[in-house]
Design brief:
- The chain has 6 helices and no strands.
- It is globular, with a radius of gyration of 14 Å.
- Helix 1 crosses helix 2.
- With 89 residues, it is mainly α.
């Protein structure tokens, strides 16, 4: 994408060292960071979660929920519910 690592670190509100660990797979992305990358750059969440690019419509919710921590699931569903609430207003 031709985006500097320092830019990704800034957008994710992490240090460059922490971003290097994210990129290397030494530490995982939280659901909120995945959403930031999706909303800011259009990066496919499935790619960030599974390492395989796919159409956003093919996002495997059951797999994501089954393989997330309770905190990640809670954050994810809070965001989904907030999004649905905006849609129905």
């Amino acid at each position: 994408m031709n985006i500097d690592k320092s830019e990704f670190a800034r957008v994710l509100d992490v240090t460059e060292e922490h971003y290097r660990k994210l990129e290397a797979g030494a530490t995982g992305l939280s659901a909120d960071k995945i959403l930031i990358l999706y909303h800011t750059y259009g990066i496919d969440p499935t790619y960030l979660i599974a390492g395989v690019s796919s159409n956003i419509m093919d996002f495997n919710l059951e797999y994501y929920v089954a393989n997330s921590s309770k905190e990640q699931r809670d954050q994810f569903f809070d965001r989904v519910l907030a999004y649905v609430a905006k849609l129905i207003k």
